[in-house]
Amino acid sequence: MTATVGRRERKKAATRQALADTALNLFLERGYDNVTIRDIADAVDVSTTTLLKYFPTKEALVFDEDTEQEAGLVAAVRDRPEGQGIPQVLCAHIKRVRTSAGDWDARFAAFARLVNDTPALSEYGHRMWMRHQDALARAIAEAIGSRPDDYRCAALAHFALEAAAFAHRSDDPELAMDAAFALLQDGWGAA
Hints:
This protein has 191 residues and is mostly helical.
């Protein structure tokens, strides 16, 4: 029984990956608005019903790392080096995963352009990113020994995540992130 379940799960994972990879390739090749769900399903040789079981919306095909993103944010707080503040490690982590364009390979840069140039994708991506707020707030509360419903932890989580969108809209994303996190670290009085 275990071997059958293992094979089934592997096949499901392979189908899911094939759908996500094919969708991204088609979106990069033709443009997001010029590709339909049916185009993707046909290219992978599955029905549209099957595709929609894996990805409930067209936008979801582009953003398939939701769990990994949340785990990375939580780990940045929980596993931070001794003596480093939470805003400091969040700034470094978010810069690395959301704004450090210089480290991107050509394919990721094309992906970033696709998202930035497609309003439906940029809005969806922002909503997905902000969904990590509660998990991040809980990790921050745990790290400082506070109650899970501490508003300060929720506010830090919200503004840390929102800083990525703020930085993305600026002329110098890295400098914008540093400024936002300096404010989060030190407060307005230090400005």
